[in-house]
Specification:
Length: 585
Amino acid sequence: MRRPTVVQPMEPVSPMRWSRYPINTMKDTPAEAELVSHRLMLRAGLIRRLAAGIYTWTTLGLLTLRKVEAIVREEMDRAGAFEVLMPAVQPAELWQESGRWGEYGPELLRLQDRHERDFVIGPTHEEVITDFVRRDLQSYRQLPVNFYQIQTKFRDEIRPRFGVMRGREFIMKDAYSFHLDEASMAAGYAAMRDAYTRMFTRMGLDFRAVRADSGAIGGSASEEFQVLADSGEDAIVFSDGDAYAANLEMAEAVAPAAPRAAPAAALERVATPQVRTIAALTAFLNVPAAQCAKTLLVEAADGGVVALVLRGDHELNAVKAQKLAAVASPLRLASAEAVLAASGAEPGFVGPVGLKCPVIADRSAVVMADFTCGANAHDTHLTGVNWGRDLPEPQVADIRNVVEGDASPTGTGRLSIMRGIEVGHIFQLGRKYSEAMNCAVLDEAGRSTTLLMGCYGIGVTRVVAAAIEQNHDDRGIIWPEPIAPFQVVLVPINPAKSQRVRETADRLYDEFTRAGIEVLLDDRDARPGAKFAVAELLGIPHRIVVGDRGLDAGKLEYRHRRATESEELAVDDALAFIRSRLAPR
RNA sequence: CGGGGUGUAGCUCAGCCUGGUAGAGCACUACGUUCGGGACGUAGGAGUCGCAGGUUCAAAUCCUGUCACCCCGACCA
């Protein structure tokens, strides 16, 4: 028996016979891939890299990508949003009008046309949609309205990495809603929150909605949808006492319950040669880090410097710090020269005592008593320092990252920290863009009213990577069924040798296909082990093996991708059996 | 952008130190043997050694420059 010969072009072929389907898997992992999802996407042949952060989606990869898109589209439509498709290339004028031409920075890919007119490749579409709406909507009667698109974006990331997880070119679903008043904006936001919850639930992902910083996009209320995965780039914070969940950037660190103790020690100067870090200090003086003050000098909004004081075992939260009026945004550490000028010492020996600049202490730092800190002199620290006695009471703010075990800001429970992958982000934007771009309609009373906006993003390509990050084992991908490229893989054993096997597999394939089940028939003349290994790499949820061994008893073998054992089923029951195992769609 | 590293066949890499015929495994093609967990044999196709300059009788190898990519830190769907 020969291998399946190449089918002539005129001959109708069924698209899902493996021998005719473009699947290209790899045994070796390309050296560039660090993250599991990136490795598996390359090995399974879902994506191929063209340049840094720029990928081709293969036929196989597209099957999953399109399924994710379809779920997103269905839920957006269900929520009453209307699909549009905006240009990827946008004129600079719109960005100048909104002010972001100057604000956005190098992440915005700018280009010129032949007439030397400036354009950008859209990293997001607030400007374009606002322009569209201000031209097309004239009456409050047309509100509220929500437009969305599923489209390719480009962000010239500082460091693209992890394959499609943090690519420069990526597919995003972005939606923008327009409202006459706050209540309507809040309702539109809530509707999107529900839609997102439905989508990610349908996709079979373990995710959480968490409070977030609204960052560069601007606006007020904002939540991120985070897929839980140890490899996630974001730290997310949960309370064990209630539903509180927030991005670490946003999670409030509450003031300690216990008041500051009365001073018990005298202020002393101690020589601490070469002791520049909290770790070195705790070792050298044998004091706990929580008893030390960490003083960071950062650039001030007025051009000078500001001292930020934290407990030695805590970390500065840059997002919180740069929101303080006195602190320059974005946050930058003061230069070594500026540190010397303000403190009289080099970094490592700075402390809040006698500093010639404003001092802002964290809520946890201000309740310390008898603490240790830099003396603002070379190779010297102070011990037994007390606020109020040895230095003025500082301004107090929440400027640190919460840590595991902190009290929840809601007052109930303790905080724990997990890792997440941000796959969605929803914002109430308010009038940031509509005001800058004069997007208004006439209200009931005939008054011109600037619209309120919400915007809602989903990283469609990132969702695929996140799903793999959360669903894999050492053999490969384990797709959640709703986004699997195929629901079923049919594996005939030695079909070239057994006509019975071949015919049974063909018949099941036709039967399943007619029933609307997405089935891939592995009709290659490969060894069984190779077929199993590749099917597992691809992560197809349901596998049916057709072999002479089973057919002698009229049986097939079924195995779910997550199962470790196969089960038998009668050939004649195959369709009914598979239907019973498929998730309702 | 700062720090570290890598560019040799589609993929993983050896060769470079010590200059002299460009290699292995996987993948691919043909044939044969094999056939329930990524088989084996034989034969074959496939590489401007990232690019440019220099040194040299001779450069994948040494030197200079340049580009690309990867990893670690500040941004985001």
